[in-house]
Amino acid sequence: MIRIKTVHIEEFRGIRKLNITLDSENLGICGPNGTGKSGVVDAVEFCITGDVTRLSGMGTTGLSVKSHAPHVDERDHPENANVTITADIPSLGKSVKIFRSVKFPREVKITPDDTDIKLVIDELQTHPEFALSRRQIVKYIITPPGQRSEDVQTLLRLEHLENLRKSFTTFSNKRKAEAKEAERGLSRAENELKNVFKIDNFDLAHILKEANKNRHLLGLKDLTELIKDTSFKDGISIPEAAEKKPTLHKSTVLKKLTTFISEIKKGEPSLLSEGRQSAKTILEKLNDDDKTLILAQRHGFIKRGLELVIEDACPLCDKEWNAAILREYLNSKILSAEKIKNLLDQLEEGINSIVQSLSDRIETIEQTLIYCNLLTPPIEKSELSEYLTYLKNSKQVLTDFLIEQSEPEAALKIVSESWWFPNTKPLDQINECHAAVNALPDKSTEDEARDCLIVAQERYEKYRASVSEEEKLKTHESLAKKVLDLYNKISTGILEDIYDKVAADFTIYYRIINHEDEDEFLGKLISAPAKLNFDVDFYGRGLFPPGAYHSEGHQDGMGICLYLALMKHTLGDNFTFALLDDVLMSVDTGHRREVCRLLKSKFPDTQFILTTHDKVWLQYMKTEGLITRSLSFANWTIDAGPRVWDHHDIWSEIQDALDQENVSTAASLLRNYLEYTATLLADNLRARPRFSGDGRYDLGDLMPPTLKEWKKNLEKAEKSAAHWKRESEKVLLIAKRAKAKELIARTNAEEWSINPSVHFNDWANLQGSEFKEVVVAFKELLEHMRCENVNCKSYLYIQPRKGLAQEMRCNCGATIINLRTKA
Amino acid sequence: MAKQDEQINLSPTVVKVIDQFTAAMRADEVIESDAIDRLEELLRKPIVPKTDEIYAALFKPPQKS
Question: Distance between CA A813 and CA A685 in Å, rounded?
Fold first, then answer.
């Protein structure tokens, strides 16, 4: 990964021209909505990947990088919209310049043209997750387990495992379907063989007996047993012509055709029509709700897992679990899927019976077509052939559904149609065939016996082949299932190890940002084929999905923590760069400092670019030392883009303006800066400005009550020191309060509301030397409110944030002022 | 060497799964070792095998000329 030094943006999104210097450090970007700060994030993402998630993700139909990434006035000149990044690559100890133009978004120009550098940039392009936006933050938190599994595996570059699982599953389902078809084929072969001898039940001993009866009539030796090489027609002399072209066995064929026509006339059997109706109802349900199918597919796995719980350990990964708790847990998971799985089983049964009927009908039509051919002259059969094609297609659709268990729409169409009655023309052809067979001359008893044995031989061979095919395909089915089960067991076990590590990091991170109220928090990622459950502790009351009880703010916090844990696992030491676009906004205010500390303490080698529209957030980032550089975006216009203010050293900037005798600019800078700072201080000191319904406060609203609170707390601290008889502290605090009074008086801030002549609105009208005094007064006052440790310098704040104030302290702990007068 | 080259695009975790999976198959006496060899060769390629390829690996040994 890289660390960015500079970004140069031209005519991109809402930005006309902008140079940003980061020097490989973190950067905070602040500005109200619509001021173009996300344009910077888009530009960096575009330069590195050639894509802009905002223009290509979900809900962006009709948007494209080429058409909509250029500034709106340059939309017909994408060649003018481009981004250049210079960066360091710590792992290589090299620097790189990356250039990309919107005109050719897939082409990146890398300087120097170095193979190692190219590999790093290529790798970056496969990790667009380095950019995380606010709307993506809950992606891993509240999505369904199936989707989460895919998203997380994609992030971890493990989608190959999921694709392998799908391939093995389809492979196994196909073998299952083939075995079922072979079973049906065997059943048909048995029926045909028994029908030759006009017996009711398939029984090889009975068939042998009937065959020998026919052989007796022909004066042939009895067959002793039916084995693989048995020949019913052994010893029969067959004319050469008959060997070449099989003849029709009139009575058998006539019986078959008569039964067939009679079945059609009787109408669709109630079992079949009820089966179709039941399958139709279920398929309609599945078609309306695609989640139902996913839920059903999980059922088998959980149920199998439940059966395998025989000791205090997970049957898949041997991880320690109390067996009773694990059973209870799995049962709770299974309940929701149970009903759906029953439905799917019912559907599978129904479709199998329809497929069986279709197979029987296909077999009969194929036989009838053969009869049509054998007759002299042959019977015209084109319509019958079309009917056969239709039946075969219908069977294929239903068989495919049983294998894939997806896209129920096509299967629904098939089960909704009744194919039992052929159209008039094919039915006429069947009747014609029947009439022609009926008109064939009757044969002698010996001829009948000979024909019977010849046909029986043909069908016995088919029966033997069906037995062999069924055995083979059942073996395939069993082996395919074994391979799938093994793969699922191994891959799930390994994924669980990974998820355990990610969950452990996630738990640590979440505890850091919520240590005040969720110090015992625990998060668990539980993997199973095709899904990834995510459960979190809720104040010791048990593990639940994150959306169950936690607030949205907490869920957003979880989103950040899980994202960071996943990135750490995916990239390890290469996680050197991340763009967090407004993702910190919905973290509740009480935990923002902790988020800053988390990023700073756990990811010291990662360069963060963070955007926010909250000034206080920006200040937190600064005072916590997360960022040293920041940009403020304001007053965006379509023609000029955003006005960008780099306030890395406000006092130098004000001095520069004063040196140029530009009091107006200096006054504006000071006012803006004090508005930022007053917001932060008011929050730190729990000041009570007059409430504003729209949440907007100007400097006059915030600074006076904040300074009043500052003095009040120093007074409290003095009383506390006196109460606890800490004389030396008391002396220091008296001096500090006196200094506060003096500095505040010099700023005139307390008089803004009563003395218009010293109001900050009039700063721009002061002489340079007069305004300089104001600047010095505020600079000293703000310095006075900071920790004196040069490595800290954070503004003091009240602890805790709510309830009775206990202390006023800094971030590093060097300054802790007791406010309590009771133990 | 060819095997290593083919694994360039497979993540270490995927390789770990394939290693353990093929070892577990070899421990099963029912599955023929030649079939496992053919399947393993398929799995170590960077592309996910199609179901027909898995079928051929497990059930259809290549014809010897």
Answer: 17
**Distance (Å, rounded) from C-alpha A533 to C-alpha A525?**
6
Give residue A385's pLDDT. 93
State the Cα–Cα distance between residues A143 and A532, nearest whole angstrom: 10
CA dist A350 → A10, A176, A346, A402 (Å): 63, 16, 6, 11
pLDDT of residue A316 exceeding 90, the answer is: no
Q: Would you state the structure tokens that stand for residue B41, as one six-digit string?
A: 């060769």
CB contact under 8 A, B48 and A494: no
Q: Kindly report, residue by residue over A227-243, the tens digit of the pLDDT.
A: 888 888 888 876 655 55
| Residue B65 C-alpha, separation from nearest chain A C-alpha, in angstroms | 25
pLDDT at A333 over 80: no
Which tens digits make up the pLDDT trace of A398-418? 988 887 777 788 889 998 888
Min distance A497 CA to chain B CA atoms (Å): 11
Best A154, A159, A487 member to test B by mutation, with max B CBs in 10 Å, is A487
Nearest residue on chain A to B53, alpha-carbon basis: A171
Whole-angstrom CA distances from A109 to A50, A71, A100, A104, B12 are: 11, 21, 6, 11, 30
> Whole-angstrom Cα distance, residue A499 to residue A506?
10
Q: Do B30 and A479 touch (CB under 8 A)?
A: yes
Q: Searching chain A, which residue's CA lies closest to the CA of residue B28?
A: A482
CB contacts < 8 A (A, B):
61
Determine the residue type at A277: Q
Q: Between chains, do A486 and B49 touch, taking CB under 8 Å as contact?
A: no
Q: Which residue has the higher pLDDT, A749 or A606?
A: A606
Nearest to B17 among A174, A480, A494 (CB): A494
CA–CA distance, A513 with A491 (Å, rounded to integer) = 33
DSSP track, A484-532 = HHHHHHHHHHHHHHHHHHHHHHHHHHHHHHTTTT-TT--EEEEEETTEE
- Alpha carbon of B51: minimum distance to chain A alpha carbons (Å): 5
Q: Can you say whether the dihedral through the CA atoms of A132, A136, A141, A146 is positive or negative? A: negative
Full DSSP string of A262-293: HHHHH-S-HHHHHHHHHHHHHHHHHHH-HHHH
Contact state of B49 with A167 under an 8 Å Cβ cutoff: yes
Greater model confidence, A545 or A214: A214
Interface test with B, best of A491, A499, A527 (most B CBs within 10 A): A491
Contact B17 A483 (CB under 8 A): no
CB-CB neighbours of A359 under 10 Å: 19
Rounded mean pLDDT of chain A?
A: 85
Q: Contact at 8 Å (CB) between A81 and A74?
A: yes
Using DSSP bridges, classify how beta strands A94-101 and A108-111 pair: parallel, antiparallel or unpaired: antiparallel
Cα angle vertex A485, ends A479, A490, to 5°? 125
In angstroms, the CA A10 to CA A19 distance is 9
Sheet arrangement for strand A531-537: A523-528, A531-537, A543-544
Contact across the interface for B25 and A483, Cβ inside 8 Å: yes
DSSP β-bridge partners for residue A108: A100
Contacts of A179 in chain B (CB under 8 A): none
- Reduced to 3 states (helix: H, G, I; strand: E, B; else coil), residue A5 is strand
Q: State ipTM.
A: 0.91
**A491 vs B58: CB contact, 8 Å cut-off?**
no
Which among B7, B10, B15, B21 is the top mutation candidate for probing chain A, defined by the most A β-carbons within 10 Å of its own β-carbon?
A: B21
CA distance A506 to chain B (A): 20
Q: Which pLDDT tens digit goes with each residue over B38-52?
A: 999 999 998 899 999
CATH topology for A3-142+572-648? Answer: Rossmann fold (3.40.50)
Report the residue from A156, A174, A487 with minimal CB separation from B21. Answer: A487
* Span of A422-426, A614-618, A766-770 with lowest mean pLDDT: A614-618
The ranges assigned to domains in chain B are 2-59
